[in-house]
Amino acid sequence: MRIAIIAHDGKKPEMVAFLLKNKNKLKQVELFATGTTGGHVANAGLEVTKLLSGPIGGDAQIASMAATKELDMVIFFRDPLGKHPHEPDVQMLLRICDVHNIPLATNPATAELMLNGSSRIA
Ligand SMILES: O=C(CO)COP(=O)(O)O
């Protein structure tokens, strides 16, 4: 099971808290993250493969993985109150997930349901 995790700056603490809360469910999961999100997650003691930071192509890298079926789900805690210079990349990633029917959660409540609903998570 491969999961991509991404969080905008205002949501990074929420992402770390979510992952730590669900640490047991993630034991068999390979995590991939945009660069800065990945740094926070690694600092919290979780193993994660870091890609480029979102604004310089990390969202695009994750979209590419989704398009080539290298990901089983995407958890993307977006900050709906923030402005993002790479908004086109964000929209592209969301669209690619829909094109390829990749489960996508954009808030902790949905992410929790997704993890609990996956038969491939211990
Ligand atoms: O900007 C992001 C998603 O759009 C996240 O990127 P970082 O994890 O590098 O901050």
UniProtKB/TrEMBL annotation:
EC number(s) from the headed UniProt entry: 4.2.3.3
Active site: 59
InterPro entries in alphabetical order: Methylgl_synth, Methylglyoxal_synth_AS, MGS-like_dom, MGS-like_dom_sf
Binding site for substrate: 8, 12, 34-37, 53-54, 86
GO cellular component, one term: cytosol
Catalytic activity of the protein: dihydroxyacetone phosphate = methylglyoxal + phosphate
GO molecular-function terms, A-Z: methylglyoxal synthase activity
UniProt keyword terms in alphabetical order: Lyase
Xref: Pfam families: MGS
Domain MGS-like: 1-122
Source superkingdom: Bacteria
Record GO biological process: methylglyoxal biosynthetic process
Keyword Lyase included in the entry's annotation: yes
Protein task: Catalyzes the formation of methylglyoxal from dihydroxyacetone phosphate.
Annotated NCBIfam families: MGSA (TIGR00160), PRK05234.1 (NF003559)
Family: Belongs to the methylglyoxal synthase family.
PANTHER family in UniProt: METHYLGLYOXAL SYNTHASE
Protein name per UniProt: Methylglyoxal synthase
Protein species of origin: Fulvivirga marina
Taxonomic path: Bacteria, Pseudomonadati, Bacteroidota, Cytophagia, Cytophagales
